[in-house]
Design goal:
CATH topology of the largest domain: Immunoglobulin-like
Organism: Ancylobacter defluvii
Number of domains: 2
Order of helices and strands: HEEEEEEEEHEHEEEEEE
Oligomer: single chain
CATH architecture of the largest domain: Sandwich
Largest sheet: 9 strands, mixed
Protein name: Quinoprotein dehydrogenase-associated SoxYZ-like carrier
InterPro entries: Fuse-rel_SoxYZ, Ig-like_fold, Ig_E-set, SoxY, SoxY_sf, SoxZ_dom
CATH superfamily of the largest domain: SoxY domain
Keywords: Signal
Structural class: alpha+beta
Number of helices: 3
Pfam family, one: SoxY
Amino acid sequence: MRLAKAVLATSIMAATLLVALSAAGSAQEAGADATWQALKPDIFGERPVADAGPLVTLTAPIRAEDAAMVPIEIAVALPPGDSRTVEKLTLIVDENPAPVAATFTFGGERHDLALATRIRVNSYSYVRAVAQLSDGSLQMAQRYVKASGGCSAPAMKDEEAALRNIGQMKMRLVQPGQLGDATKANRFARVQLMIRHPNYSGLQMDQITRLYIPAKYVDRIEVKQGDALILSMEGGISLSEDPNLQFSFEPTGQQIHVDAGDTDGRTFEGELKPAG
């Protein structure tokens, strides 16, 4: 009888602890939203930002394995018959020193798109994807990510090796699209773009000199198919080392050309042909 009571008491304590931890986590997430309320006017002014519901989805790990390389994926899908198009996508990490990780502008009339990349997360934070549609509305998806130290984490390569290979670019077609196919399932292709670059945040310390490494990062990327814009990006320190983008596009058979640059004025170019 005593043993049964002891087991019951232990079970109740464990259940109480789990409830308390869950409540604490929820409270922490709710409190973290205060940062967003302060940030929002600086980024979007007085424009309302709506919960996107199914229009925009953001996929990210709840707890990141590596805070300096957190994989995220965003999908935007407007419903059939919706005449609006997707013009821009802003990626935000609330608690990072520079919260706006990147802003993407899309060419053409995009009703559907997929975009994946890797970011730095400096402390437990909401990650947000805000899509701007052609009617001017802002649609947001968000995800709370548990990670810390991503912006100050040491680079994986030493500075000499990183600078020696800086700007090397690789593109590959990860999903072919069917030219002339009108179905949503088959008409989109997907490309992965990788650029060798340390993307120094300005918060990382040289392990030998113990001095901070000046910020140096890829701040612009433009991807065209022939003369038509697929997407352009304005980036910041929250993108990971060796920037990596995957994005969908509707192939026309023309080659894809990439023009990129960093904050030191370097320029990098690459091509993938054929595009579809």
